[in-house]
Write a structure and sequence with these properties.
about 400 residues; alpha+beta; Immunoglobulin-like; TIM Barrel; 2 domains; 10-stranded antiparallel β-sheet; 6 helices; 22 strands; about 15% helix
Length: about 400
């Protein structure tokens, strides 16, 4: 951001910037608040309701650690106080357990929160994936609205509930707003750059721009809370949707040009169990004169749920199956998930472990999680070398057919 002018006066620092010097940031020092303006109109406000909160790091009290080691789990009547006199043995503060698995939190609770107001914007969109309306509903609990905040947490939900703020498969903390007003249409957006579990409350309120004589309009008030991480957010002020999505693409990366076959209809179910299933479905589409380009296989094509393998009994001749699909120029997609089965002799896990490409736990041991294959490990995709290795596996000659 090229700053053209910055002036501090009466507890407020005003920054003017942009090619036309028509964008402004007003930083109110006390109480702390940040206004984002374009063309003299307030578009977005951070901490308007003073919800900014960062949980401070504090060490677990030595006395409590010693008592836990000596007596095991401490009951409510045995709660200790930390150095500041605060109870530090509340449920979930230092570790959380679910289905027999325990996640430690060595730094204790460290959530962050901030309110963001989209000034004069009655409708906001985005934060996929939720089975909700296009224009996001309020979470005020009123009739016809949600009583729980939107949740951002990657979750595989089978037969999920419709019209709900509950989390689904993905989590994209990007919220977009659009409005029409007397001075034309306006667009604004926010990217909350945090990968931790996040909750978002959304309500509407009457708002009047203090810098203009415009009539009151409904504003969207949001409250973002993440379980951990830092405050790292990006504000997009448009002025239009084309500009915002161009900037968003430049920031996060754009989608590669897809291959032609991927644009057409895909037939995907869980699960086609063998080669006869695949070829029967393929023939059925021809029989009923239904065009399709791609058929998918879920995990059952594998040998004992080991990716990059074929089940020798149910898929004994995958190359022949592919040639039959290719007669009508149809493709086959075999699902590959990131969880790698922990099994003696499984070549993918053996290679990943040998190359030190697997995600580690707090004790620097390979993380043992549970998914479709059972006990599983995960590739550390934050490592460039691990990503490069993973890329080399996606070749047909890498898919192993076990001896029959």
């Amino acid at each position: 951001m090229a700053v053209n002018k910055a002036v501090t006066r009466d507890n407020v620092t005003k920054i003017h910037y942009g090619p036309k010097v028509d964008q402004e940031i007003h930083i109110h020092h006390w109480p702390f608040k940040i206004d984002f303006l374009r063309g003299g109109h307030v578009e977005m406000v951070l901490n308007e309701r003073n919800f900014l909160n960062v949980e401070h790091w504090r060490p677990k009290s030595v006395k409590k650690v010693q008592q836990q080691e000596k007596e095991g789990e401490v009951g409510d009547e045995q709660m200790n106080k930390d150095e500041e006199g605060q109870e530090d043995s509340e449920d979930g503060m230092w570790e959380e357990s679910f289905n027999g698995k325990t996640d430690s939190k060595p730094r204790g609770p460290e959530s962050i929160g901030l309110d963001v107001t989209f000034s004069g914007y009655e409708h906001v969109y985005g934060i996929p994936e939720h089975a909700s309306t296009f224009s996001l509903k309020s979470t005020s609990g009123a009739e016809g609205e949600y009583s729980e905040p939107y949740r951002l947490w990657n979750l595989d939900v089978f037969e999920y509930e419709l019209d709900s703020p509950a989390a689904l498969y993905g989590a994209i903390p990007f919220m977009y707003a659009h409005k029409k007003s007397s001075h034309g249409s306006s667009d604004a957006a926010l990217l909350w750059l945090n990968a931790a579990e996040t909750w978002i409350d959304l309500t509407t309120a009457e708002h009047k721009n203090p810098l203009s004589f415009s009539t009151k309009a409904a504003s969207s008030q949001t409250h973002w809370i993440s379980e951990s991480g830092i405050l790292d957010l990006l504000v997009f002020l448009g002025p239009d949707s084309t500009t915002i999505f161009k900037q968003y693409g430049e920031l996060t990366g754009t989608t590669p040009l897809p291959p032609l076959f991927s644009i057409g209809y895909h037939q995907c179910r869980w699960n086609y169990m063998n080669e006869d299933d695949v070829l029967t479905v393929d023939a059925g589409f021809d029989k009923h004169d239904i065009p399709y380009d791609t058929i998918w296989l879920d995990i059952e094509y594998t040998d004992d749920k080991q990716y990059f393998t074929w089940d020798a009994r149910n898929f004994p001749s995958p190359e022949s199956m592919l040639k039959k699909l290719d007669v009508n120029k149809r493709k086959l997609v075999a699902i590959i998930d990131p969880h790698i089965k922990r099994k003696e002799g499984y070549w993918v896990h053996k290679e990943g472990e040998k190359k030190d490409f697997m995600v580690k736990n707090a004790e620097a041991k390979i993380y043992d999680g549970w998914c479709w294959p059972g006990s599983s490990s995960w590739v550390d995709f934050t490592s460039q070398k691990a990503r490069e290795w993973w890329h080399t596996l996606f070749r047909f000659d890498k898919f192993k057919v076990p001896p029959s």
